[in-house]
Amino acid sequence: MKIYTKKGDQGSTSLYRGGATSKASARIAAIGDVDELNCHIGLIVTLVNDNETTPLLQRIQNDLFDIGADLATIRKNDKDNKAAGSFKMGSEAILETQIDFMVDQLDPLTSFILPGGSASATTVHLARAVCRRAERTVVNLASNDQVSPSVIIYLNRLSDYLFTLARFQNKIEGVEEVKWQSSHID
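User: That's the sequence. What structure does it adopt?
Assistant: C-alpha coordinates below.
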Protein backbone atom coordinates (compact mmCIF):
# COMPACT_ATOMS: atom_id res chain seq x y z
CA MET A 1 0.00 0.00 0.00
CA LYS A 2 1.31 3.43 -0.92
CA ILE A 3 1.52 6.11 1.75
CA TYR A 4 0.52 8.87 -0.65
CA THR A 5 -2.97 9.11 -2.11
CA LYS A 6 -2.70 12.44 -3.96
CA LYS A 7 -6.22 13.27 -2.71
CA GLY A 8 -4.92 16.30 -0.79
CA ASP A 9 -2.90 17.76 -3.64
CA GLN A 10 -5.53 20.46 -4.21
CA GLY A 11 -5.50 21.68 -0.60
CA SER A 12 -8.34 19.70 0.91
CA THR A 13 -8.54 16.73 3.23
CA SER A 14 -11.25 14.33 4.40
CA LEU A 15 -12.92 14.29 7.80
CA TYR A 16 -14.62 11.35 9.44
CA ARG A 17 -18.34 11.45 8.58
CA GLY A 18 -17.92 14.94 7.18
CA GLY A 19 -16.61 14.99 3.63
CA ALA A 20 -13.77 17.20 2.49
CA THR A 21 -12.55 20.43 4.08
CA SER A 22 -9.78 22.91 3.38
CA LYS A 23 -6.41 22.16 4.92
CA ALA A 24 -6.47 25.83 6.01
CA SER A 25 -9.69 25.42 8.03
CA ALA A 26 -9.92 26.07 11.77
CA ARG A 27 -10.65 22.37 12.32
CA ILE A 28 -7.50 21.22 10.53
CA ALA A 29 -5.46 23.88 12.36
CA ALA A 30 -6.73 22.48 15.68
CA ILE A 31 -5.96 18.91 14.65
CA GLY A 32 -2.47 19.99 13.52
CA ASP A 33 -1.72 21.78 16.79
CA VAL A 34 -2.80 18.72 18.80
CA ASP A 35 -0.61 16.54 16.55
CA GLU A 36 2.37 18.86 17.09
CA LEU A 37 1.77 18.72 20.83
CA ASN A 38 1.78 14.93 20.66
CA CYS A 39 5.18 15.05 18.94
CA HIS A 40 6.54 17.26 21.72
CA ILE A 41 5.23 14.82 24.33
CA GLY A 42 7.04 12.04 22.43
CA LEU A 43 10.26 14.04 22.70
CA ILE A 44 9.72 14.45 26.44
CA VAL A 45 9.36 10.67 26.75
CA THR A 46 12.87 10.29 25.33
CA LEU A 47 14.28 12.80 27.84
CA VAL A 48 12.30 11.86 30.97
CA ASN A 49 12.72 8.15 31.19
CA ASP A 50 11.40 6.97 34.53
CA ASN A 51 8.89 4.37 35.66
CA GLU A 52 6.45 6.97 37.03
CA THR A 53 6.33 9.66 34.36
CA THR A 54 6.85 7.71 31.13
CA PRO A 55 3.65 5.63 31.32
CA LEU A 56 1.58 8.75 32.00
CA LEU A 57 3.22 10.62 29.13
CA GLN A 58 2.43 7.69 26.83
CA ARG A 59 -1.17 7.74 28.05
CA ILE A 60 -1.25 11.46 27.30
CA GLN A 61 -0.05 10.69 23.78
CA ASN A 62 -2.94 8.25 23.36
CA ASP A 63 -5.36 10.82 24.77
CA LEU A 64 -4.07 13.40 22.28
CA PHE A 65 -4.53 10.92 19.45
CA ASP A 66 -8.12 10.37 20.64
CA ILE A 67 -8.61 14.15 20.73
CA GLY A 68 -7.32 14.41 17.16
CA ALA A 69 -9.81 11.74 16.10
CA ASP A 70 -12.55 13.56 17.98
CA LEU A 71 -11.71 16.83 16.24
CA ALA A 72 -11.72 15.04 12.87
CA THR A 73 -15.28 13.83 13.44
CA ILE A 74 -18.08 16.08 12.24
CA ARG A 75 -21.07 15.97 14.57
CA LYS A 76 -24.34 17.25 13.22
CA ASN A 77 -26.58 16.57 16.22
CA ASP A 78 -26.66 15.45 19.87
CA LYS A 79 -26.78 11.79 18.84
CA ASP A 80 -23.49 12.23 17.00
CA ASN A 81 -22.02 13.93 20.09
CA LYS A 82 -22.76 10.80 22.14
CA ALA A 83 -21.39 8.45 19.48
CA ALA A 84 -18.31 6.32 20.03
CA GLY A 85 -15.14 8.23 19.36
CA SER A 86 -16.05 11.44 21.12
CA PHE A 87 -13.46 12.31 23.73
CA LYS A 88 -14.85 11.58 27.19
CA MET A 89 -14.37 13.36 30.49
CA GLY A 90 -12.21 11.65 33.09
CA SER A 91 -8.64 11.73 31.83
CA GLU A 92 -8.12 15.17 33.33
CA ALA A 93 -8.58 13.66 36.83
CA ILE A 94 -5.40 11.61 36.37
CA LEU A 95 -3.54 14.79 35.46
CA GLU A 96 -4.92 16.56 38.53
CA THR A 97 -3.73 13.72 40.78
CA GLN A 98 -0.22 13.95 39.32
CA ILE A 99 -0.19 17.74 39.57
CA ASP A 100 -1.11 17.51 43.27
CA PHE A 101 1.58 14.86 43.85
CA MET A 102 4.29 17.03 42.29
CA VAL A 103 3.15 20.30 43.87
CA ASP A 104 3.38 18.68 47.31
CA GLN A 105 7.11 18.15 46.66
CA LEU A 106 7.86 21.56 45.16
CA ASP A 107 8.67 24.85 46.85
CA PRO A 108 5.78 27.31 46.60
CA LEU A 109 5.98 29.76 43.73
CA THR A 110 7.04 33.19 44.96
CA SER A 111 7.64 34.74 41.55
CA PHE A 112 7.08 34.03 37.91
CA ILE A 113 9.56 31.61 36.37
CA LEU A 114 11.03 31.58 32.91
CA PRO A 115 11.10 28.50 30.71
CA GLY A 116 14.49 27.00 31.40
CA GLY A 117 16.64 25.04 33.75
CA SER A 118 17.49 21.54 32.63
CA ALA A 119 17.11 20.38 29.02
CA SER A 120 14.19 18.15 29.96
CA ALA A 121 12.40 20.93 31.89
CA THR A 122 12.89 23.36 29.01
CA THR A 123 11.47 20.78 26.59
CA VAL A 124 8.46 20.32 28.86
CA HIS A 125 7.97 24.12 28.93
CA LEU A 126 8.03 24.12 25.12
CA ALA A 127 5.34 21.43 25.08
CA ARG A 128 3.32 23.54 27.55
CA ALA A 129 3.46 26.51 25.18
CA VAL A 130 2.36 24.32 22.26
CA CYS A 131 -0.43 22.94 24.47
CA ARG A 132 -1.67 26.45 25.19
CA ARG A 133 -1.65 27.19 21.45
CA ALA A 134 -3.58 24.00 20.75
CA GLU A 135 -6.08 25.01 23.43
CA ARG A 136 -6.54 28.45 21.84
CA THR A 137 -6.99 26.89 18.40
CA VAL A 138 -9.59 24.44 19.71
CA VAL A 139 -11.44 27.23 21.57
CA ASN A 140 -11.46 29.22 18.32
CA LEU A 141 -12.90 26.22 16.50
CA ALA A 142 -15.52 25.77 19.24
CA SER A 143 -16.70 29.37 18.77
CA ASN A 144 -18.06 28.42 15.33
CA ASP A 145 -18.39 24.64 15.31
CA GLN A 146 -19.15 21.62 17.49
CA VAL A 147 -16.29 20.61 19.80
CA SER A 148 -16.58 18.31 22.77
CA PRO A 149 -16.20 20.44 25.93
CA SER A 150 -14.05 17.68 27.44
CA VAL A 151 -11.37 18.40 24.82
CA ILE A 152 -10.98 21.99 26.01
CA ILE A 153 -10.98 20.94 29.67
CA TYR A 154 -8.33 18.28 29.01
CA LEU A 155 -6.01 20.63 27.12
CA ASN A 156 -6.33 23.24 29.87
CA ARG A 157 -5.47 20.68 32.55
CA LEU A 158 -2.65 19.24 30.42
CA SER A 159 -0.95 22.64 30.23
CA ASP A 160 -1.14 22.86 34.03
CA TYR A 161 0.37 19.38 34.26
CA LEU A 162 3.18 20.30 31.87
CA PHE A 163 3.99 23.49 33.80
CA THR A 164 4.20 21.50 37.01
CA LEU A 165 6.19 18.70 35.37
CA ALA A 166 8.77 21.22 34.11
CA ARG A 167 9.21 22.53 37.64
CA PHE A 168 9.39 18.99 38.99
CA GLN A 169 12.03 17.99 36.43
CA ASN A 170 14.24 20.87 37.53
CA LYS A 171 13.82 19.81 41.16
CA ILE A 172 14.67 16.13 40.63
CA GLU A 173 17.61 17.07 38.39
CA GLY A 174 18.89 19.55 40.97
CA VAL A 175 18.63 22.53 38.62
CA GLU A 176 17.41 25.86 39.94
CA GLU A 177 14.40 27.44 38.29
CA VAL A 178 15.02 30.63 36.34
CA LYS A 179 13.09 33.42 38.05
CA TRP A 180 11.68 36.29 36.05
CA GLN A 181 13.26 39.67 36.70
CA SER A 182 11.59 42.62 35.11
CA SER A 183 13.83 44.48 32.70
CA HIS A 184 11.52 47.48 32.88
CA ILE A 185 13.46 50.57 33.91
CA ASP A 186 11.55 53.46 35.46
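Residues 119-142 form the longest helix (24 residues).
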